[in-house]
Design goal:
This protein is about 30% helix and about 25% strand. The chain has about 400 residues and is α/β, with parallel strands linked by helices. It has 2 domains: about 240 residues, Alanine racemase (TIM Barrel); about 130 residues, Lyase, Ornithine Decarboxylase, Chain A, domain 1, CATH 2.40.37. Strand 16 and strand 17 form a beta hairpin. Helix 2 runs parallel beside helix 9. The structure holds pyridoxal-5'-phosphate.
């Protein structure tokens, strides 16, 4: 089975439509394609039959998208009490929600437990706290098996330097703590990082997890995390999701063949679900030539899409309308008072004119979700495109939304 896993925005947002949406909703705005989002969910379900796929909502928690994802029969992976609350408000049942928070407070553990979500815990002291609070509750343990990967060191979430997970050496003590409080260890979890393209690496980590799980009776959930890579640069290849699915499913079948009580595979993809379903659309405000560079200044920047500044990430871009001038080395920059406020660097393309639109592709994951108010600027509107229709699914913030202080 070949699963198409990359799709460009031109199929749903060309020059005419982006101009119409910019006119209607102003700029900048995030635009999302319902069709691409649904396709991603279906591709995952087809590739991993029988698995519980829990979308990592940290990638994009827009409620309209969450409701569509729920409609596609995915659950959610959450990292905060408010993510759990929002998931519930968007109709996810408690059993469809897993919480994999990092260093949770007691209040957060209480809120998550009250909501009925499954909890992945990854520190001995957290197990003590949870056990004292909720004797007899089911829990899942997050492990760090020292196999990590990802597109940037900041997003590698396993390995010797990672804050995440219990080490295999801590596992006996973790189980002893669980036993003391009657906690039932029904799951094992790991997430090796984000933006992983190497199937072999991901499988190595899964094998290590299964080996440990084989020695623990009562394991019902093998939560192998997310991290499926999505190509951003033209030379990057989409992962073969079919191969990924076949290999993982075969491993689960072999694992379950040895057990009377069968375990279910759980996956937590975030980026894969939403990345290619989203774009950021901004307007060119200033074209400025210095001795060495052509700066194209736009009305969006690192406060809306921090990935280029934070991870030196490369995003596909285009300007509308298409200009026909000689290509030059263009630097696309925003309005923030930082030299790192960059959206794209050194792109050979015809220089746009002030008033043109910029479209930034692959912006659906970790785009709006990581946006800030830095420099006292509003987060943009979000628009969902479904077939011929488009609707605003979150309004641009106002001055009052952003300031929210008592003394003005
Ligand atoms: C525990 C956990 N699960 C899932 C994910 C989702 O990763 P991705 O968006 O790369 O699939 C993350 C991302 O950081 C995570 O920390």
């Amino acid at each position: 089975m070949t699963v198409v896993t990359n799709e460009t925005w031109e199929s749903w947002l060309g020059p005419r439509r982006s101009a119409r949406l910019a006119e209607r909703y102003g700029t900048p705005f995030y635009g999302y394609s319902a069709r691409v989002l649904r396709n991603r969910c279906r591709a995952l379900r087809r590739a991993f039959p029988g698995a519980l796929i829990q979308y990592a909502m940290k990638a994009n928690s827009n409620p309209a998208l969450l409701r569509m994802i729920r409609g596609q029969k995915l659950g959610v992976d959450t990292v905060s009490a408010w993510e759990v609350q929002l998931a519930r408000e968007c109709g996810f049942r408690p059993r469809a929600i897993v919480y994999s928070g990092s260093n949770p407070s007691v209040e957060e553990l209480r809120a998550v437990h009250r909501a009925g979500a499954m909890v992945n815990l990854d520190a001995l002291s957290a197990l003590h706290r949870y056990g004292k609070l909720f004797r007899g509750a089911p829990v899942s343990l997050r492990l760090n098996l020292e196999i990590g990967g990802g597109h940037h060191p900041h997003v590698v979430t396993a390995g010797p330097d990672s804050k995440f997970g219990l080490s295999p050496e801590e596992l006996p003590e973790a189980r002893a703590i669980a036993a003391r409080y009657g906690l039932k260890v029904i799951g094992l979890h790991q997430h090796i990082g984000s933006g992983v393209f190497e199937l072999a690496l991901w499988l190595e980590a899964m094998d290590a997890l299964l080996e440990i799980a084989a020695a623990i009776p009562g394991i019902e959930r093998i939560d192998a995390g997310g991290g499926f890579g999505v190509p951003y640069r033209p030379e990057e290849q989409a992962i073969e999701l079919g191969d990924w699915g076949r290999a993982v499913t075969a491993r689960m079948a072999a694992f379950n063949a040895q057990r009377t009580k069968k375990a279910r595979l759980v996956l937590e993809p975030g980026r894969f679900v939403v990345c290619e379903a989203g774009v950021l659309v901004a307007r060119v405000t200033t074209v400025k030539r210095t001795r060495d560079r052509v700066f194209v200044g736009v009305d969006s920047g690192m406060h809306h899409l921090i990935r280029p500044a934070l991870y030196q990430s490369w995003h596909p871009i285009d300007f509308y309308p298409h200009r026909t001038g000689t290509p030059e080395r263009v630097f696309v920059v925003g309005p923030i008072c930082e030299s790192g406020d960059v959206i794209a660097e050194e792109r050979m393309m015809p220089v746009p004119e002030e008033g043109d639109l910029l479209v930034v592709g692959n912006a659906g994951a970790y785009g709006y979700a990581m946006a800030s108010h830095y420099n006292l600027r509003a987060r943009p509107a979000e628009v969902l495109v479904d077939g011929d229709r488009a609707r605003e699914v979150r309004k641009r913030e106002t001055y009052r939304d952003v300031v929210r202080a008592r003394d003005v």
